[in-house]
């Protein structure tokens, strides 16, 4: 009986830890950057050709906000090796989608964006 109870407790803990933080719909404004390069160098890559090349390879792209937050872009926008993002690399855009935080990292899952002024 104890073994069965311990198994249920372990399963409940595993489900709780694996469950993502509840997503909330939000609109985030920022510049689309190559996430890897930005996190490594802490500056926006001014070489658009390099950033576009990374996007076309399917590397993670992110939204850099004015206050320095980084949101990894996921969902339909990141599908097919960032097909919908390539034309907007280094542009300032607004993305409305499901924002989640896991392990201190933010992400936004969305299918579309709009150019911002």
Labels describing this entry:
117 residues; alpha+beta; OB fold (Dihydrolipoamide Acetyltransferase, E2P); five-stranded mixed barrel; 4 helices; 6 strands
**Sequence stretches where pLDDT stays below 50 over 5 or more residues:** none
In terms of DSSP E residues, the strand content is 25-35%
Number of domains: 1
Helix content: 25-40%
Quantity of strands, as a count: 6
Describe the overall structure.
This protein is α+β, with helices and mostly antiparallel strands. 32% of the residues lie in helices and 33% in strands. The protein has helices at residues 2-18, 35-41, 48-56, 79-82, and strands spanning 24-34, 61-64, 70-74, 92-102, 105-109, 113-115. A five-stranded mixed beta barrel has the order 1-2-3-5-4. It is globular. The model has no long low-confidence stretch (mean pLDDT 85).
Could you outline the blueprint of secondary structure elements for this entry?
Layout: H1 2-18, E1 24-34, H2 35-41, H3 48-56, E2 61-64, E3 70-74, H4 79-82, E4 92-102, E5 105-109, E6 113-115
Parallel strand pairs: 3-5
Antiparallel strand pairs: 1-2, 1-4, 2-3, 4-5, 4-6
Concise description?
With 117 residues, the protein is of the alpha+beta class.
């Amino acid at each position: 009986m104890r073994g069965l109870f311990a198994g249920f407790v372990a399963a409940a803990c595993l489900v709780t830890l694996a469950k993502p933080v509840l997503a909330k719909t939000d609109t985030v404004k920022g510049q689309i950057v190559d996430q890897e390069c930005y996190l490594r160098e802490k500056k926006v890559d001014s070489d658009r050709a390099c950033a576009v090349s990374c996007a076309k390879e399917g590397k993670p792209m992110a939204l850099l906000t004015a206050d320095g937050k980084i949101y990894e872009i996921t969902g339909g926008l990141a599908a097919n090796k960032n097909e919908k993002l390539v034309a907007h690399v280094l542009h300032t855009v607004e993305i409305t989608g499901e924002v989640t935080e896991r392990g201190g990292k933010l992400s936004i899952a969305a299918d579309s964006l709009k150019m911002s002024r």
